[in-house]
Amino acid sequence: MKLTPRQEEIVRLVKEGQPVTSEALASKLGVTRAALRPDLAILTMIGMLDARPKVGYVYSNKPSNSLLYEHISKIKVKDIMSKPSTVSEDTMVHEAIVYLFLKDVGTLFVENEGQLTGAISRKDFLKVAIGGTDIYKVPVGVIMTRMPNIVCVKEDDAAYEVAEKIISHEIDSIPVVKEELDKDGESYLRIIGKVSKTNITKLFVKLGKIN
Predict the structure, then answer these.
(1) What is the chain's alpha carbon radius of gyration, rounded to the nearest angstrom?
(2) How far apart are CA 80 and CA 69, in angstroms?
(3) Is the N end or the C end of the chain the one with fewer CB atoms within 10 Å?
(4) What is the pLDDT of residues 95-142, one digit of tens each?
(5) β-pair partners for 158
(6) Over its length of 211 residues, how does the chain's per-residue pLDDT go in tens digits?
């Protein structure tokens, strides 16, 4: 299993100064504690670090082929994905913002007759709002990030790999897609689900209850 550069740096810092609190690690890495949580969860789940309450993290380097790791490696995207929140390209930005908050999600995916064409995050909406754009007259198709510049996953991909993509790309949610053919025989990607930080967090909580 390959660690990300930040995960390797976390392990190095813990080795050199154990025990180390999450606050201290966040300070040394120049990030927030929230940003570190997925990395620390992964490193403790695979047995490389031990989390000791009121003390901090220590290096343990347990075998990565432990029962827990074996369990994690078998979990697929289809086991944890949830229903995506989608809008069409001609949906006005204001309407999309209202929909985003009603659904309480961080990202809306844009589709055209079932085909995934783009994505818009809360940050995108914020940039548009403070930039003076008339959000009542501009459709999301104008401001969205378009395919193929969107990170996607398939339902049979490993959940662990998806968590790594969320961390490395610093995004809130990844669309789960399925390749299909249109009436002309051309292939396209249909969105069938999503994996968000919330899905990953729920998975870690579930795994944490495994003895």
Answers:
(1) 20
(2) 17
(3) C
(4) 999 999 999 999 999 999 889 999 999 999 999 989 888 999 999 999
(5) 76
(6) 567 889 999 999 999 999 999 999 999 999 998 888 888 988 887 778 888 888 899 998 665 555 555 667 788 999 999 999 999 999 999 999 999 999 999 999 999 988 999 999 999 999 998 988 899 999 999 999 999 999 999 999 988 889 888 888 889 999 999 999 888 888 999 999 999 999 988 887 776 655 4
Bridge-based pairing state of the strands 107-112 and 86-87: parallel
Distance of CA 186 to the CA centre of its chain: 29
The token pair at 151 is 């990170």
Q: What is the pLDDT of residue 114?
A: 83
Bridge partners of residue 175, in order along the sequence: 194
CB count in 10 Å sphere of residue 190: 16
Q: What is the residue-averaged pLDDT of the chain?
A: 88
Ramachandran angles phi, psi of 198, nearest 5°: -65, -45
Which residues share a beta bridge with 210? Answer: none
- The residues facing 178 across adjacent strands are 190
Distance, CA of 159 to CA of 52 (rounded, Å): 26
C-alpha 170/C-alpha 168 separation (Å) is 6
Structure token pair of residue 206: 């579930």
Tokens 């969320």 belong to which residue?
A: 166
